[in-house]
Amino acid sequence: MDNQESVIGLSRLFTQLEPGQQVEIGGDIHEIIGVTANGLSLKAPDDELWDTGLQELLRLEPRFLGRSGEALDSGEVIGALISASSASQEEWDRALELSGHMEEVCTGTFRIRGVPDSEKINPAYASAKNLTERVFMKAEELGFSDRHIWDLLSNYRSISGFGGATALVRNSPTGRPSSVDAKFVEVVFAVVLASLEKPEATHSDSELMDSIAELIEDSPEFAGTPIPSERVQRTYIAKAKHSLGLTSSRHRFNQSRGQQPPSSFSAVQPVGLGALVELDVTPLDVQVVDAVGNAFRPYMFLAVCVVTRMAWVMLSPTNGAADVATFLLKLVSPKPRVPAFSRDAYYNRIGVEATYLKQFVPDSDSGVWDWAIGAWTVPRVLVVDRGKEFKNARVLTIAMSLGTRIEFARPNVPTDKPHVERLFRTISGTVLPKIVGYTGRDASAKGKLPAHDPSSLLDICEMETVLDMWLCHVYHHQPHTGLVWLES
Questions:
Q1: DSSP string of 300-364?
Q2: Is residue 151 part of a domain?
Q3: Same domain for 155 and 49?
Q4: Cβ–Cβ < 8 Å for 432, 463
């Protein structure tokens, strides 16, 4: 471990835990007696003393409480304990001393939390007018630059979170730490994510910065969070937009067509099912009927795994965020291995044996009809276009919860999603012409196809079952010239 990182990590630990605090384990409240490099010394409710190592502590899933009984971020505390577990004794001692110096800068009194008799009052620090003056004094005392002291102080302050030290740093009339407060980063992400719920807004950086200031002022959780300069705010807004998938990894093409990059997203070396999935939606070139017999053209959602060419399809009367979320659920849901056409087949949306729908499946003689076996995957990278059905808070939140990175293709560049576009063409030219209610692929077919009686049309559930049956029993068993690695 890097020595400086070890020291800072340990100093964070000392600001989180000290003897007398409590930790909840299995519903029982234990008192912290001591903090060591190997773990914690605890006193159980029955006054029994015991030591717990880091591995045991992780297994027990503790809930740490602050000095006033409030819940701490247990992940932060565990992270600090992990830093402590790999530190040398020299780093441990330096971190203890460093935390005392930072306490002296904040309050004017040198004190190492959890170490008895460590308190020392330096009249020079106690009489200093403000925080900035104490920072200059500490930099001269330790031989550090002023900026380095601000960095250390920011690390100390961002984790301590309680008592006069935090209030003094946040409300100091002069000076500002060079590091950006972690709470401010949370505010930026919250504001950018909330802005997606308002598609009518322009979401300019200026509007977002106004929203950030309002949230910090109105929210008790973020009250007092220091706001950095406008330039720094714009930087973190851009980072938040990129992390949420609102801009691709190469977003200069948003400025002019002359700066368009050669590709639409970060270079990804897809290996394995779900490593790179292309997803798109288009109106289906077939009329279907709804539950009351009204004819309409549904939307077809289609996804293709670039590595394996496995595909998934879904039909919906509407095209919105809820439909995309439902389709993603279909991708990530395990599918049973059952006989073809059975009620339990993953593609069966009609609730009865689906054998009669086989007549609408092209190339059925070359298919494999023993079992209904469907693939499922959690996409690692999902390539979509910039439609509002994909670019919204609901879809981005689901993708974040799945660990899926969304990459947005360039506008009007279908080659950024070549595999799903090619499958659209295959379905339109192979499967749909056999279906009653086929409307043709474009306007050239208008007036050339016979009119259809609504009573002869498939309903939307039957149509989706036909498409899924074709993918499952025919398409997935055909060789793909692009999958040359399968031949080796």
A1: EEEEEETTT--EEEEEES--SHHHHHHHHHHHHS----EETT-TTSTT--SSS--GGGGGGSTTG
A2: yes
A3: yes
A4: no
Q: What is the DSSP annotation of 379-408?
A: -SEEEE-S-TTTSSHHHHHHHHHHTPEEEE
Residue 329 lies in a domain: yes
Supply the range of the domain harboring residue 205.
182-244
CATH number at residue 330: 3.30.420.10
**59 and 206 fall within a common domain:** no
Token pair for 354? 């689906």
CA distance linking residue 340 with residue 355, whole number of Å: 8
**3-state DSSP call for residue 243?**
helix
pLDDT in tens, 131-183: 778 888 888 888 777 777 777 776 565 444 332 232 223 333 333 334 577 78
Q: Which range has highest mean pLDDT (14-23, 99-108, 160-169, 387-396)?
A: 387-396
pTM: 0.49
Nearest to 408 by CA among 386, 390, 392: 386
Over the stretch 329-388, which tens digit does the pLDDT of each residue have? Answer: 999 888 888 888 888 888 888 888 888 888 888 887 777 888 888 888 889 889 998 888
Asked if residue 256 belongs to a domain, the reply is no
Report in angstroms the alpha-carbon separations of 98 from 8, 165, 272, 291. Answer: 8, 15, 48, 71
Q: Which of 300, 235, 245, 277 lies closest to 381 in space, CA to CA?
A: 277
Rounded-to-integer distance, Cα 411 and Cα 264, Å? 10
The rounded distance, in Å, linking the Cα atoms of 60 and 460 is 51
The separation between CA 32 and the C-alpha centre of its own chain, rounded to angstroms, equals: 34
Residue with tokens 């499946």: 361
In a domain, 301, yes or no: yes
Q: Pick from 170, 203, 228: which residue ends a domain? A: 170
Q: Are residues 423 and 298 in the same domain?
A: yes
Number of domains into which the chain is organized: 3
Please name the residue that has the structure tokens 């409030």: 70
484: CB partners within 8 A, 6+ apart: none
